[in-house]
């Protein structure tokens, strides 16, 4: 059994890790930390876990974490970068679900996250863990930066187009929408049911922290700078991201081979499902599942490629992808613990 | 008192007309028709109207409708085009909330609506009733084609940009999202709560009936053909449309004057509210109200203008705009019966 | 014009008061206070009010409030009892939407609200403002304690049964359900969309602050002590309360006259609607409206009277009833400003 | 591998069976029937199952079903009673998720379901499959009538009280609330998102088909007739039932031992969780899981026992309990395929 620790377990990604790991046959969760809730049994905070875990939240303790094979960070930004170096020295492997190690340009990081980065060394060494792009590097990594939720949905949908150089990289638009769990589990007035329910809005339209992460990833796929406009929106639901992507085809004749291109690109990917041309993926078709489903569209008289891409922000957009990365890192079957279909309806 | 008839009153736009007209001081609703529910009191179907109306649904009868000053059609497409000519001859004025008279190119209409148009004469004479564009023509019109819900939100947001020729008219993108009431009140499995709730998806991404209507309106504003990509989405809520619009500024320096331009363009419009630059309009801020609120955004290093525009699809996107048109047609105060603030939360 | 002040305007009852008063023809809101948001325009916090109010929140100032004809308190408990005495001395009339003056037994009050009452004199003089019971006293009152949301729905439904002594007063059960806006607008984790959405639960099942208020009101109607079990539940929606009430008929033969009894009891009440026997009132039929709708049911082989009673917790359960009380106090038409039908769908 | 057939697979219980069985290690689904959708791949209708099943819906064919080890009926009432006798003759075992074999009194059945029962012989032999009551009979049964959703939540909560004779059996009240998936997946206007969303109501308050089933089960537990009032309500969410149960304790002193009694009664039950006294079970704590969670409450000065009981109507209230019954019938571990924690949030 692989011994796993979780730092920052009271948020939605924390409980989602516990939910997934509860049925993972090769994992034993040996500690889960929370400064604010130390001592409280996890099943008291999350009654869906009653009968599954006897653990209580504990104060984060590097000695205890250092005895784990792998530690997940499910913390706000700024925490992992301070604790990771010591764990690295102890030989522990880490999957960081926070944003601390996602950006390679630390000036950009500092600018968006409002603090200086405290572990430039590991920021450089960290592997940005999108398995569909860098599976082999993940296998060997000691530190994996788990991608953000929006960046996962957006990158996967644009990837085949950019890798093949079929679209104008300067004119990418990603109109993305997320359920409320993406904002985490803090008592913010703006995230109350009375504020979020029965309403829809854009937010961060003038700039969102996931924009530089998306830009970095797409530039990598494109082999050069990209111009991408990214607008997130808040959906009155709990789980799910849909990203509608727009790109301008350099040669309209390429439309005919796009579907085949996408299907080939992801043919061996267990967690990316290219649906038939003209399909409309629903977020519920991936609820609770580590899946990205996508479909292509074209409107008459248009050379705009439209891609609709959906994930569950807490699974393929966070905890599920983290477990996928862990499976890769430890040589387990990549789908282990991640086989269950989505919960629909 | 102006005598009003409503044809097709059992759907959501029908009940919304009744809700609004219940407090309109100059209107008396003298008949409301429904083939399927003839004889049923409207307050039995819509208990929110108990105490407000003694009317029952009746069979549509041109003699009765012909005695009205104005008739609203809240019918599926294909109904109004058959009944309108006779009402026109009887001197009745009509606001048609259906799609029958919105498009000027009847080949396009036939193509999207799957039938030949049966009243080409009145399709030509009909005024497309977006008051912010053609108020004077509405005043004099006998037949007003009330705009669609998406087209209202999209056109209002793009108007200032296109009228001033500031953006590339060939590269317009409208990513629009609507609550479920936009699909009407028919027993379709796809619109069940169990299907719509807690899920989000694009639909009609390869082509939607509102696309030609949007294209017609934007071409008018632009003074020439436009290239517009329009993707609608279904939000798990009841009322509200948010459209996020993307356009490429010809001259990035123009960014500095966009806010003032929008404010001036709509300064005298009682039902268009330009919020401060960088705001995020919420659909709930217009729920139940005949308002369009919009705001502008810019992302760093980008010459894409982003406009977020929200309306209540049943009000400014249907029944409210119809009453606004009626007020204009009869020389009433344009805001009469439409003064109440939105219901928030 | 009647000059109105509102203390504590940032919560949901505050904005609801503003929404209703925006179309009230005899009212001018002259000040609205908030310690935390002093200086912020109300329309910045509540964009549905843009164009309706130029007011900004101000620090509470007894001098300013003392110049009003009427002051609404939309504050947490414990605030009104401290400020009311001074306003009373200044001759201002007050409708307190908080719980401060609802209970006559101040030991009970202290027990449930966790503090000693600081204005026993005015607690005694205050009129518990359920117009359907004590309209004449409200007319003459200087201080009205506006009833709680649950107590309004529960009392109205039980009233005719208890006033006529038809049911066993020792065996009353009120199973009540409320939307999330009833919990107010504070940043509590338990009220996040991610916690409330797509879930349902009882809360306060072992005892809730509205229980003594219900007991007091029902005892008054019954002319003696009552035994009532009250369990509130949280519905994943924003507005609306449904209370299903169970009472044991002393004489089953009385079933035949219950419908007539209820209809007569509320025949002259503008805001209570007794629906036909066997109807199922929906909360949406009163959304945004100052209405209580109710209906009676009987199951075969049973002498249990079932009453289903619905209100909008923010309207007939709070701000609407407060305006109704104000109308009565100032000799206005009781329905003034409260005529609009509910928002459905 | 046990070969399983499903009759009537297009509804919500059908897809839920498929979701659960997809990860069941001992089961192979060999056919799934649908008259209306014959030929359509199940994964086209339910995209969450893409990659999990290659099956298409087929016409129901007794020869094919007769080759299965077990057949689930997920059909409307009236179907199973016609097909079951032939399957019984073929030696197939059946779990019927419909209401056909739940009631022992066929006059009562005929009265509530509006048709004569066509298989009295098997109605008598069928085992009413509530494992917590008749596990041994289920083990040996050829035909199991899977309990209804409401009856499961209500019976489990009342069981310990009635079995021990602690409460007045003539005065039971069950106020139950369900998400919309309980109404199935048919295109009924009343179940549209626009009708169900943001609203709450009682329904069937004068009598519901689950009432006689509840009465039969509780009478069995009580050892004599019971008087039970049962009112169902519709919650604006998809999955979940909460039942708040009220019973009058014969001897108030018994309150002290109720918690222990409940805990002992269900100590060996893998799918019933008695939470600490005074807890408030949330439906989300069992979403997607085959669990019933319950808690006890008492209000001061009261001898009413309050039990709050929650299940997922599609799992412990339908497909999950059906799989649990199947596991018992085939001597598998009772929890096999049912181990995953609920999806929260």
UniProtKB/TrEMBL annotation, chains A, B, C, D:
GO terms for cellular component: cytoplasm. It is an enzyme of class 1 (oxidoreductase). It is found in: Cytoplasm. Its main location: cytoplasm. The active site is at residue 149. Belongs to the NAGSA dehydrogenase family. Type 1 subfamily. Catalyzes the NADPH-dependent reduction of N-acetyl-5-glutamyl phosphate to yield N-acetyl-L-glutamate 5-semialdehyde. This is N-acetyl-gamma-glutamyl-phosphate reductase.
